[in-house]
Task: structure prediction
Amino acid sequence: MTDPSINLSERRTFLGILLGGVGLVISAAAAWPVWRFLAPSSGEGNLAKVSIQRAEVPLEQAHFFSFHGKPAVVLQAAPGKFAAFSAVCTHLGCVIKWVPEEQEFLCPCHAGRFSVEGKVLGGPPPEPLEELPVALDGDQVLVG
Result:
């Protein structure tokens, strides 16, 4: 026969190790989001440029795309003259729309209007659209 005191001791050791491991996993799971929030970003994504084919941006038309995870727009207002802006309205953060008939951007939330230069034409937006740097490289429009 086996000694019941040995089994009890082994059970306690096993449960102690098991609970310690579970506590470690729970602690790591809780600490990971805090670490991601507090840790500085590497900054590599901020240097990346977005490449768009010139053919995708016809004259007097807008092309919407994602720039660093946020909506953006590039516009060819005149032949060979490209401008890019954040597509987020400066009033409450709604995504703007292009109105080709009016040749302006419109915020559908509160009727904010922006010119082809990103300037406020009317409505509640307090500031112009954030302008993004644009460069041409052959048949590519580089934004960023």
User: Anything to note?
Assistant: The mean pLDDT is 84. The radius of gyration is 28 Å.
